[in-house]
Amino acid sequence: MFERLFKDCPKDHAFIFYFMYAEFEETYGLYSHAVEIYDRLVRSVPTEDKFQAYSIYIAKVAKLLGVTKSRPVF
Fold first, then answer.
1. Could you tell me which of 29, 28, 3 has the C-alpha nearest to residue 17?
2. For every residue of 18-46, which 3-state class applies, written as one string?
């Protein structure tokens, strides 16, 4: 469902949908898939949202996979 959404979603609205998708994966799926979605999030959001996206991405990687795994994100 989310993957189909991203084909037609404008980039300025993508942030919230990627976040929802990653939260869904954290709750009902795999942590590794959620981290991949956060990675896609930071690559697809507009420049003005990148700082917030990276802050969330780093925090989630540290929480889910450990602090040492967050180093490549920096």
1. 3
2. HHHHHHHHHHHCCHHHHHHHHHHHHHHCC
Task: Report helix angle 50-65 to 11-28, nearest 10.
Answer: 10
pLDDT one digit per residue (tens) for the chain, 74 residues: 777 767 777 777 788 888 888 899 888 988 888 888 888 888 888 888 889 888 888 898 888 888 887 788 77
DSSP summary character for residue 66: -
* Number of other residues whose CB lies within 10 A of the CB of residue 41: 23
Contacts of 17 (CB under 8 A, 6+ apart): 2, 5, 6, 9
